[in-house]
Design brief:
3 helices; about 60 residues; three-stranded antiparallel beta sheet; about 35% helix; globular; single chain
Length: about 60
């Protein structure tokens, strides 16, 4: 694996995918969500630290 591939793999392993109570999916760094007990409890501030997957893939994905 190239150095670039290793870095991408390291970053990917630090991430989680969370679907909120409205069905939107977010890619987040686990360190940003340490206080979250249930995905339904994801606050607006925590969502801002994550990437809204629908913004990347589109609403119809």
């Amino acid at each position: 694996m190239s150095m670039r591939g290793e870095k991408i793999s390291e970053e990917y392993q630090r991430m989680v995918w969370v679907r909120d109570k409205d069905g939107k999916e977010y890619a987040c760094y686990i360190d940003d969500l340490k206080g979250v007990k249930k995905k339904e409890d994801l606050t607006e501030e925590e969502k801002e630290k994550c990437l809204d997957i629908s913004q990347v893939l589109g609403e119809s994905w």
